[in-house]
């Protein structure tokens, strides 16, 4: 009897654990996806728009510029986590550095309801921050303060600033994103500073800067191995290096990428940066439900960040929620038509082109196709399918002939799989069309 019991435990206990894990994961996923409709119902709601203008560096040298910019960017990120407001992107805010812009321009040309300005001076282990929140409607300062604290108090200062700004703009509300229990990244100022340096280098999108960013982030990890931020930014930086061809997409690079990403998620499972990267990974693997789970979690953590909106909109399309996916991508196109590493709007227009195609809006497809500077295989094949469905002869059109020559030797089935479509009928139809033409 004891032998049977022992053998039974060996056989059935692992099975029990597997079923428990699957049941628990499905339960968690269901809870996460239940608030999807609530999130999407508020997409069209008007929310006050705020911009954080890069702070003035009052240090006598430029050595502290990365810290000044990093604190301003962190404040911008903190504000972007609040769903009740709309926040201008980092690219927009930092493009306004040292420009003489009137409050009328901020309101009418940029659409800002409020702006945050300030200055920072660092001295030894102390930090001096002066900050103002201005209402652009009547060009008046509605809140200002000065902070003179130790460097280690920077996260408490950020919390205080964000709380006061939100209170001034939308009143006394409970903002769950400001609960710092799992978000204070580190007690080590050294780790924080190295993270800021690595993040700033990451955003240059250059090969040498990318390599240097990884060194800085490794130094941040070495200074505090419990700090989740350098892990998530390291994963982001390695992903960037593979996407832009700075590093080979080999087993070693992928292992480093997964290790950093897993550690970031382990240390903080609400890190928007890690969550949106995990969503990208599941999208690539065609696991669309898990992609939606992580994209929705990333959106809950940071509903204003362009990186999050980019994955959120694309996953919504594959998840079958076409109209809201299009709304998200159109919103992103409005606030940031040219992503950081791009030189034109092609990436955004290409995704909008696919979105309109999936939604059978061929009129919009025509409009967007003509805006794309360099058509890829996906746009060429999809446009051919559109013209086929419209029974329009396109075989002698320049766009078709040039694409036919350019894409002749591609592995069509493999390329179509890279469209990451969650509709076998569409994929099969495109495969058949590609073989015919």
Topology, please?
Elements: H1 2-34, H2 36-41, E1 49-52, E2 56-57, H3 65-80, E3 86-87, H4 90-94, H5 103-108, E4 114-123, E5 126-135, E6 140-150, H6 154-170, H7 189-202, H8 207-223, H9 228-243, H10 251-267, H11 272-284, H12 288-301, H13 306-318, H14 322-335, H15 346-358, H16 362-369, H17 377-389, H18 398-406, H19 412-417, H20 424-436
Count the helices. How many?
20
Q: Architecture of the domain at 50-173, according to CATH?
A: 3-Layer(aba) Sandwich
Q: How is the main sheet built?
A: 6 strands, mixed
Contiguous runs where pLDDT drops below 50 for at least 5 residues: none
Overall radius of gyration:
24 Å
The CATH superfamily of the domain at 50-173 is identified as TolB, N-terminal domain
Overall, the morphology is globular
CATH fold description of the domain at 50-173: Rossmann fold
- What letter string, H or E per element, gives the SSE order? HHEEHEHHEEEHHHHHHHHHHHHHHH
Distance between the termini: 69 Å
Q: Find the count of extended strands (DSSP E, 2+ residues).
A: 6
CATH class label of the domain at 50-173: Alpha Beta
Description:
There is one protein chain. Among the domains are: 2-34; 50-173, TolB, N-terminal domain (Rossmann fold). The chain is α/β, with parallel strands linked by helices. The model has no long low-confidence stretch (mean pLDDT 88). It is 60% helix and 9% strand. The protein is globular and about 70 Å long. The protein has 20 helices and six strands. α3 crosses α6, α3 (65-80) crosses α7 (189-202) and α7 (189-202) runs antiparallel to α8 (207-223).
């Amino acid at each position: 009897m004891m032998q049977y019991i022992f053998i039974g435990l060996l056989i059935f206990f692992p099975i029990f654990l597997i079923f428990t894990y699957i049941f628990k994961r499905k339960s968690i996923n269901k809870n996460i996806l239940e608030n999807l409709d609530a999130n999407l119902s508020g997409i069209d709601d008007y929310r006050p728009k705020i911009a954080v203008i890069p702070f003035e560096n009052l240090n006598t040298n430029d050595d502290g510029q990365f810290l000044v910019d990093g604190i301003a960017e962190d404040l911008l990120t903190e504000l972007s986590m609040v769903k009740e407001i709309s926040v201008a992107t980092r690219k927009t805010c930092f493009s306004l550095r040292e420009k003489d812009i009137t409050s009328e321009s901020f309101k009418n040309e940029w659409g800002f309801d409020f702006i945050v300005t300030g200055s920072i001076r660092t001295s030894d282990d102390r930090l001096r921050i002066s900050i103002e929140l201005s209402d652009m409607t009547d060009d008046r300062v509605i809140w200002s303060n000065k902070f003179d604290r130790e460097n280690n108090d920077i996260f408490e200062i950020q919390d205080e600033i964000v709380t006061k700004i939100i209170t001034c703009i939308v009143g006394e509300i409970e903002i769950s994103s400001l609960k710092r229990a799992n978000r204070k990244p580190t007690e080590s100022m050294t780790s924080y500073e190295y993270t800021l340096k690595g993040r700033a280098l990451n955003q240059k999108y250059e090969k040498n800067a990318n390599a240097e960013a990884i060194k800085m982030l490794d130094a941040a990890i070495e200074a505090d191995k419990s700090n989740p931020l350098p892990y998530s930014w390291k994963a982001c930086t390695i992903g960037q290096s593979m996407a832009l061809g700075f590093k080979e997409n080999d087993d070693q690079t992928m292992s480093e990428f997964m290790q950093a990403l897993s550690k970031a998620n382990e240390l903080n499972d609400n890190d928007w940066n890690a969550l949106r990267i995990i969503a990208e990974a599941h999208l690539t693997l065609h696991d669309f439900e898990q992609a939606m789970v992580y994209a929705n979690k990333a959106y809950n953590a940071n509903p204003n960040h362009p990186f999050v909106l980019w994955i959120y909109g694309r996953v919504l399309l594959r998840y079958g929620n076409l109209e809201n996916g299009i709304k998200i991508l159109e919103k992103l196109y409005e606030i940031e038509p040219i992503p950081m590493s791009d030189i034109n709007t092609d990436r955004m227009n290409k995704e909008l082109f696919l979105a309109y195609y999936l939604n059978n809006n061929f009129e919009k497809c025509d409009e967007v196709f003509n805006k794309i500077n360099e058509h890829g295989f996906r746009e060429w094949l999809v446009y051919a399918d559109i013209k086929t469905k419209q029974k329009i002869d396109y075989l002698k059109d320049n766009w078709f002939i040039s694409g036919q020559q350019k894409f002749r030797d591609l592995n069509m089935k493999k390329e179509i799989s890279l469209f990451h479509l969650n509709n076998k009928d569409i994929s099969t139809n495109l495969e058949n069309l590609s073989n015919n033409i």
